[in-house]
């Protein structure tokens, strides 16, 4: 079966047709997004270009390349086949034509899917209220308020700052950039958690009252969590335990076990394809554990005996840390992060417990 890989808007849509008859060749159809517009649908154009061999008119001027002579005319690109090879090539080309005709509707579906993503509305909430944050995120999970560390981070920040907000839960909705979470604020859409918090701070005049040095360290810690610790947590959580992570006791999705097992294999491939190129995918389990330990040691050194990372009040990296720790620690299976927090970093564990008690009093553990 052909495989369809739809990337975020602004990237290329690749439709891999490598299941065709030829072992040496494969066809890649590429649709480029530009300024929110999509190239014309491929299916009709593709069908027009697929022509059976017997309909090709013979040419007189040609240059020889192996057993096939290619026309030297500058305005055409056709081929002459010696009689000894014509029958075999004719059968192969007709099989290819038949296969391509069957794939043409699939190509059109891919384009329509990409087109719907490319034309997502700038604002979903048409009757928005001024200075109300509309938070779009994944539905709640069974063991944590949200399985996404970024959704939990943003939601907790809005609760902590007492910002008027409304949560819209959805598995399907995405921002114009193709992301979750995203927010809509005063008629504007903002995606990516760090950009969301920055916009909220500017709109509502939130000051963190850090010194220049503290602000620099806070920024560095925030980026370390999402640029390093994220990957050391991701692999044990998702890639090493996909069946457990996708189980309905975690996700709240009413899927039977055999369906979860099937989805897990595809899920692992997708995650590896997306994150394998950053380098962490090539590390061994022990190397990932070592990086995670060193990241936790850095956080523990900054936290010390303080209530939060930089004093008595939490700042942005406190919420980032909470989002990544809580969405992993409370999963119902053992992972390196849980072992480290329980055995080696009690102060970091207490930071997470403190954040939960302060801002999620309604969060109850499943029975």
Briefly characterize the structure.
This protein has helices spanning about 40-50, 85-120, 150-160, 195-205, 210-240, 240-245, 250, 255-275, 285-305, 315-330, 335-345, 345-360, and strands at about 5, 10-15, 30-35, 35-40, 60-65, 70, 80, 135, 165-170, 180-185, 190. By secondary structure, it is an alpha+beta fold. Among the domains are: about 135-205, Glutaredoxin; about 210-360, Up-down Bundle (Glutathione S-transferase Yfyf (Class Pi), Chain A, domain 2), CATH 1.20.1050.
Write the layout of secondary structure elements.
Elements: E1 3-6, E2 12-16, E3 28-34, E4 37-38, H1 42-49, E5 62-65, E6 68-71, E7 79-80, H2 83-118, E8 133-137, H3 149-160, E9 165-169, E10 182-185, E11 188-191, H4 193-204, H5 212-239, H6 242-245, H7 248-251, H8 257-275, H9 285-303, H10 316-329, H11 336-343, H12 346-359
Parallel strand pairs: 8-9
Antiparallel strand pairs: 1-2, 2-3, 3-4, 5-6, 6-7, 8-10, 10-11
Helix pairs in contact: 1-2, 3-10, 5-9, 5-10, 10-12
Account of the 3D structure:
The protein is of the alpha+beta class and 367 residues long. Among the domains are: 133-204, Glutaredoxin, CATH 3.40.30.10; 212-360, Glutathione S-transferase Yfyf (Class Pi), Chain A, domain 2, CATH 1.20.1050. It has helices spanning 42-49, 83-118, 149-160, 193-204, 212-239, 242-245, 248-251, 257-275, 285-303, 316-329, 336-343, 346-359; strands at residues 3-6, 12-16, 28-34, 37-38, 62-65, 68-71, 79-80, 133-137, 165-169, 182-185, 188-191. Strands 1-2-3-4 form a 4-stranded antiparallel β-sheet, with helices on one face. Strands 9-8-10-11 form a 4-stranded mixed β-sheet, covered by helices on one side. Strand 6 and strand 7 (79-80) form a beta hairpin. Helix 1 (42-49) runs antiparallel to helix 2 (83-118), helix 3 (149-160) crosses helix 10 (316-329) and helix 10 (316-329) packs across helix 12. The two termini are 43 Å apart. The relative contact order is 0.09.
């Amino acid at each position: 079966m052909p495989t369809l890989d739809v990337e975020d808007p602004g990237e290329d849509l690749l439709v891999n047709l490598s299941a065709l008859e030829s072992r040496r060749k494969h066809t890649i159809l590429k649709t480029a997004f530009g300024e929110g517009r999509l190239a014309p649908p491929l299916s009709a154009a593709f069908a027009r270009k697929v022509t059976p061999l017997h309909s090709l008119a013979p040419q007189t001027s040609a240059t020889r390349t192996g057993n096939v002579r290619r026309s030297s005319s500058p305005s055409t690109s056709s081929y002459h086949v010696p009689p000894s090879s014509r029958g075999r090539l004719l059968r192969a080309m007709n099989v290819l034509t038949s296969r391509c005709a069957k794939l043409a509707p699939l190509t059109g579906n891919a384009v329509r899917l990409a087109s719907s993503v490319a034309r997502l509305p700038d604002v979903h909430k048409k009757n928005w209220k001024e200075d109300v944050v509309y938070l779009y995120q994944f539905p709640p999970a069974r063991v944590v308020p949200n399985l996404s560390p970024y959704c939990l981070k943003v939601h907790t920040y809005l609760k902590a700052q007492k910002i008027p907000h409304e949560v819209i839960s959805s598995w399907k909705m995405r921002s114009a950039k193709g992301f979750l979470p995203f927010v809509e604020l005063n008629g504007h859409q903002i995606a990516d958690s760090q950009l969301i918090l920055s916009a909220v701070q500017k709109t509502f005049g939130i000051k963190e009252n850090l010194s220049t040095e503290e602000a620099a360290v806070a920024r560095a810690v925030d980026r370390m969590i999402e640029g390093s610790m994220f990957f050391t947590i991701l692999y044990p959580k998702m890639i090493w335990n996909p069946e457990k992570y996708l189980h309905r006791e975690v996700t709240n999705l009413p899927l039977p076990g055999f369906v979860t097992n099937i989805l897990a294999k595809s899920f692992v491939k997708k995650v590896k394809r997306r994150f394998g190129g950053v380098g962490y995918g090539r590390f061994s389990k022990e190397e990932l554990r070592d990086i995670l330990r060193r990241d936790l040691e850095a956080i523990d050194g900054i936290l010390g005996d303080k209530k939060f990372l930089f004093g008595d009040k939490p700042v942005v990296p406190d919420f980032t840390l909470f989002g990544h720790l809580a969405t992993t620690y409370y999963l119902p299976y053992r992972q390196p992060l849980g072992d480290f927090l329980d055995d080696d970093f009690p102060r970091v564990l207490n930071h997470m417990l403190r954040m939960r008690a302060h801002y999620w009093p309604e969060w109850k553990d499943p029975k």
